[in-house]
Protein 1
Amino acid sequence: MPITRYSRYEGTLDDLDMGELMRMLQDRLLESGFGRDPFDPDPDARPTLEDLYQAIAEALVSNDLIDEQTLSEALDAENWMDSELGRMVRELAQRLEREGFLRPGEGEEPGMGEGGVAGTGDPGRSTFELTDKAIDFLGYRTLKDVLGASGSSTVGAHDTDRRTTGVETTGETKPYSFGDVLNLDVGETFKNAARRGFEQGRLQLEEADLMVAQSEYHSSCATVVMLDCSHSMILYGEDRFTPAKRVALALAHMIRTQYRGDSIRFVLFHDSAEEVPLNRLALSQVGPYHTNTAEGLRLAQKLLARQRKDMKQIVMITDGKPSAITLPGGRIYKNAYGLDPLVLGETLREVGACRRHGIQVNTFMLAREPELIAFVQRVSAMTRGKAYFTTPATIGRYVLQDFQSRRTKLVN
């Protein structure tokens, strides 16, 4: 299996490796909106080049990559972007684009200049996007940080309790059945024949004597990750959305490199729900939203219905109770106070639909209110899924290790 390795480079600013710069920027890039007001009238606003320039400058300062004189000149300048530090930041942004980590945002108006993301346009209005290379890098870094030395599962598949005949054996044998790979366990086969004794000095081998070695059956899995991006995910002095995005990126990287037969899709749920591509997930933000869990589950089921996999599951990361549903006419009904019976009933109907379609729902709850615990336990019981009550600091380890250790039963 090909392995992607990212190495750390130590040297002067002019020779700074862009992978190392991305490492310095990863926490800032994954923030839930660069500190944007979640009640901003434009909830779909994306980080701008000005945000990127500030993030690069902060990284240079915090990693002692610029001298005090350069920093002092920037602080004294009327516009720090006109200083030597500003020039360095623009050049580094250009290098990030040239090396394939960034690209101008879609639909950008002309005027960004020949330098691409670091051109002559208004940095306060121009936006940027992370490329697949950047997403892969951030996923790799997060996966490495989260799992550390905890080990990994069998490369390329999910273990199950089903056994089949093949080349990679488990040490277990079974009587041969028509259609099995003829991977004979010679010793056990001859033992069966020897129990009947010799005839004219020879063993008489019959079909019933044949024993074949078993190997583990590896299944494929279709996963939809549902991320709650309601306003509560950044309330109470704690950013819960950024750790959730980091986990999603790490999970995507692990599936791409270790579970090649799997698929993964991402759904953001709030007042409604929508699928987001991986390259847009990293820069997605929390908004002034409620929690329409039912709509998220409905969309996740549609995505999973298109997948032909042995296993189908929904990984739901949330911190609050359902507080909104979509009515038949398309209007959004909202009630943020307590578990509204109408909202709860519609949500549980979608959970029941998941059960009927054989979809397991594993819920990772970032809050511990008694009514939320009861709701999550009910969801898990209905779909035979799992419920984890965790924190932003530990959610990554729970999600990734659960994905690796998952088992399923397939009946012949």
Protein 2
Amino acid sequence: MADTDNKMEKIVSLAKRRGFVYPGSEIYGGLAGIYDFGPRGVELMNNIKRAWWKAHVYDKENYFGLDSGMFKHPRVWEASGHVGGFSDPLAECRECNTRIRVDKELANVGVVADEKMSIEEINALFDANRESIACPKCGAKNFSEARAFNLLVKSNLGDFTSDGGEPVYLPGEACQGIYLDYKNIVDTMQPKMPFGVAQIGKAFRNEISPRNFLFRTREFEQADTQVFVRPNENKELYEEIKRDRWNWYVNGLGIDESKLRWKQHENLVFYAADAWDIEYEFPTGFDELEGIHDRTNYDLTQHQEFSGTDLRYTDPETGEKYIPWILETSVGLGRMFLAVLSDAYHEEEMDGETRVVLRLKPDLAPVRVAVSPLLRNKSELVEKAREVYKMLKQEFGNVAWDDNGNIGKRYRRQDEIGTPYCVVIDFDTLGENPSLLDTVTVRDRDTGEQQRVAISELISVLK
């Protein structure tokens, strides 16, 4: 088995074993493409969201946050093109009924099936390469023709007749809410061009073949920004946004820059001026992490036409009216979570044995610091350790109490969940060595080095 496969298996195993990610509905046999974030996973995810929000709202001028409702008028998805064109090519194995996504299977054998191709064009490629594509379940090469399978997930919200005449959909992407509230934001916030709107929201896709753990799922969150600019004033700001997004992954999340690369879209959709992806080298290879798109005026033009509402921006100084162009950044937070986890995962030698460690940035770690009494059966050590624990918990919040097993096992356990520092209260803390009274041992996750720190200085040292 390839090393990349081994690493993904190890990450999936650690994620469940240490409370990061659980399979959805596992006690009923699971549900493909659905995952639950456990106690440590939700902390890591919240820290990632917090870092993203700070970078995209608090650290920027003229950017506004939004949280739009998931359910939207059915016409929204007609205007956006999702009802007519939001589909993947599906084929079924005639031997075991396993369904495959044809464009991905073609990509695996080196054939590009572009998303803008018609189903007839994809079938022509499929027919020419059938002998190279085997069913992932039974190995047969006997497939049906490819057909377009719409990915929108239907709901019966408000449909009291049950005739399905005007279906409501769960959001196929989160960003449509930004376009719908664009006019409200202009009217209430009076922004000057250019301005941005940031949102973290849920999206649902009826994926044919969910795969690679959190990389492709049926329920996920997207972190999007839509930057509204004057027509034809897009190029310079687009390049600035691209640089900003790259630098944030390196400096904001601590991602290894050598595992990132750019990929430009070769065949643009008709309305786009440019489109690039930031790709990350996941354990399964390089694949899309985030998209940065120059969408011109397509989205607001479509919603103006379908809704009948004037969505032109009026320049407050000149009175000029125009439909703004949009520069978009969009990333699935599950993919970002997986990239952070993959990048942080290391196996290395320490003290003569192999350890697994997550080298997470301290601000991202689900536990900022773990506090331990040297011995759990010595009441005086436990009492003092609880004092230190309460003090640190009041300051940092995400502080763990760990008295299970010997100190070495505690260190290894905390290394596996990425805890940057372990604080140990020992007999010197109590004054066995008078010169070390009211000091503790602070152990660094990455180096394994330990230092004595006065309790009175502990918070400032950890910060």
Protein 3
Amino acid sequence: MDPLTLHRWQFAFTITYHYLFPQLTMGLALLIFILKTRALRGDTTANQTANFWTKILGVTFVMGVVTGIPMEFQFGTNWSRFSEATGSIIGQTLAMEGVYSFFLESAFLYLLLFQEKRLGPKGHWAVSLLVFIGTWLSGFFIVATNAWMQHPVGYELDAEGIFHLKSLAAILGNPWAHAQYIHVMVGSVITGSFVMAGISAFYLLKNRHQAVARKGLYLGVFVGLVASLLAAYPTGDTQAKLVYQHQPVTFAAMEGHFHTSKGAGLVILGQPDLEKMELDNPIVLPRMLSFLTHARWNATIQGLTDFDRDLWPDNVELLYYSYHIMAGLGTLFILLMMTSAYFWLRKSLSHKRWLLWALMLAMPLPYIANTTGWMTAELGRQPWVVYNLMRTADAHSLQVSAGNTLFTLLGFMGLYTLVSMLYFFLLMRIIQAGPDSTPSNSSPGVV
């Protein structure tokens, strides 16, 4: 393989693995804050539940830190030309993520884990709020960095191809960043909700920790249903319309829309054939794509063949499948959580063993949906690292050979395998031990 391909593979591997952890911590941070708010009103079971999930949040946060640090270095080692050209832009948001949010999150997470007795109920509630703010603020600065690469604003480009910061306010106020951020955070809440509901379902199936399990199950289902609906509309809808407006070739590729047409249909299933420029075995909702994009049934949608082949995403098939897997799983999330909410309202959810099994087995699915969602965004931006301004082929480090990159990629894979084993060992110990037996304001214990 050539060095560029290996650089891309290495970054894809490390960032995909890393994001398995922040999506859970960002989702759990909101759920724990909700539980601590209920605990502040005297709900001791909610406090027990919050303390249990704080342990899982803590060990997952550590994994996010360990796997996130190498990515920062890769900007310099593997993507030095990109860093040289855009450093004055992306350096701002990445530095703000570290200074303003990471330290806020990590410092107050310690207090959330170990200082409940000293802080008291109100102080511990305030700490849970600050941890929630820190995790979500961290997510915003990272998304703002990516959004600038998708839709660059607030910059000046000199004759040597170097980007200079013109307006930090424009970067932080980037409409692409706001839409993408809300959609990403909703996705993380789906992950947190499904994991909380799934582990709670496991406890109910095993007839253990019944009170805490019911509290976690009901909260996970309620918040998961709201988040799943928001992921589809308005956040997903807004994001798709921005892609159509600013990256029409990406939109055509991810929708499998090859030829410009009026009243374009929405593809549910089908296999793209790039030789014939058509979809095999398509299942299409007539005119729906035009309506969803323009609110008009007969609106014209540009096809992929309208654009120069050099502007096409590098892997149209993978982009198409990633997008449809994400959208398909999103629909499944709504159906599963609506069914669970229905039985919750009938006060029989905890007795429906088939549904508890479904919730438990569905825990990995939000990880797949979030991963394919990010793949859709990143594959869709190609062949640009900064959309329409800097190609990925011009961004990687020329001094790092293919052999060196392959060696470090294999090293990351081996190291992350060992780290994963440690993470699951700690996670299984926490789940096996279960919540603290004392429902009062007690210390959550050492992870």
